[in-house]
Design brief:
The chain has a domain at 4-170 and 214-243 and 276-294: 3-Layer(aba) Sandwich (Rossmann fold). The chain has helices at 17-28, 47-57, 72-77, 79-100, 137-157, 183-197, 217-230, 247-258, 282-288, 296-315, and strands spanning 9-12, 34-35, 61-64, 104-108, 161-166, 168-170, 201-205, 211-212, 214-216, 237-239, 245-246, 263-267. The longest helix is centred in the N-terminal third of the chain and has 22 residues, at 79-100. The chain contains ten helices and twelve strands. Helix 1 crosses helix 7 and helix 2 crosses helix 4.
């Protein structure tokens, strides 16, 4: 087991949604030698910048969270950018960590790496069973390449690189931009804005039939830290809650929690995305004792309360 407070830790993507929660947890653990530079300091798509970052911070532990992503709309609009930036960032970071003899590398993948028609629940062994869902395949495959790199470097160089597969995250601090946000923040914003404006309906993409699993961001941060401390295996590990809910039921739940009483209209000309998502989360519990602690309704309430107090209050004149 790694004693994290004694290590020099480098976190990429620390300004992001999961990153902010992870850094706060590291601080509470007593980890004070933690670096998480901003993109303006080091552009991770530049190998020279990555090299300079390692020279300055000399990490013993690398936790790679940085990613370029978004919801279905953002993935459809940016497949080339999402593939290139996510692949090149990870490839260069892992290679530089190998060159520098970094003690441990923790790489965050994505549930989008799974095949479109993966048997439910998704088991890590099913990762190579087919092509990902088309609307986010570029993103999913770019992140999947990093699993191959982690395993290849372990085989050839003895690099201790581990790979985690988080399900869709949600919680306070999420992105609520309708052009790039994921489904929960988008639904919360649409319902609250419609309720405030007295609108009688909201329009959502697809037909509401797909199912999704969600993990509260604080739980995800805990899972990453447990894996960093305790897991040293070559096999990828799912991080999730093990729950499953349809988008239709999710929309109804968020409407109720936000007070929106209008009609939900489904635009079936828009894509549904992957038909079902639910992870087998037994490996994470077995290997490093992770189990999600936050119930879904409690997590939604915290997220809605945060949006009301932090975003809506800030927007008031």
């Amino acid at each position: 087991m790694i004693n994290l407070p004694s290590k020099r830790i480098l976190v990429t993507g620390g300004a992001g949604f999961l990153g902010r929660h992870l850094l706060a947890r590291l601080q509470r653990l007593g980890c004070y030698d933690v670096a998480s530079p901003a993109r303006r300091e080091y552009n991770l798509t530049s190998f020279d910048a990555v090299e300079r970052m390692f020279e300055v911070h000399r990490p013993e532990i690398l936790i790679h969270l940085a990613a370029m992503g978004g919801g279905i709309g953002a993935n459809r609009a940016n497949p080339g950018r999402f593939f290139y930036e996510n692949a090149i960032m990870g490839i260069q970071l892992i290679e530089m960590a190998r060159r520098r003899g970094t003690e441990k590398i923790v790489v965050l993948g994505t549930i989008c790496a799974y095949p479109k028609f993966t048997p439910v629940p998704f088991r890590e062994e099913d990762l190579w069973g087919g092509y990902p869902e088309e609307t986010n395949a570029s993103y999913g495959l770019a992140k999947k390449v990093l699993l191959v790199q982690c395993q290849a470097y372990r085989q050839q160089y003895g690099t201790n690189a581990v790979y985690l597969l988080p399900v869709n995250l949600y919680g306070p601090g999420d992105k609520f931009d309708l052009q790039s946000s994921h489904v929960i923040p988008a639904l919360i914003r649409k319902c609250l804005e419609a309720h405030a404006a007295g609108r009688e309906e909201i329009v959502l993409w697809g037909d509401g039939s797909p199912t999704r699993e969600f993990l509260y961001v604080e739980d995800a941060a805990e899972g990453v830290l447990l894996a960093t401390e305790k897991y040293n295996g070559s096999d990828p590990v799912n991080l999730g809650s093990g729950m499953e809910i349809s988008i239709r039921d999710l929309a109804s739940m968020i409407a109720e929690l936000t007070g929106f009483k209008g009609k939900i209209v489904w635009d079936t000309s828009q894509p549904n995305g992957q038909p079902r998502r639910r992870l087998d989360v037994s490996r994470a519990e077995k290997e490093f004792g992770f189990r999600a602690a936050t119930t879904f309704q409690a997590g939604l309430r915290k997220t809605i309360d945060w949006y009301r107090s932090s975003v809506l209050q800030a927007e008031k004149p």
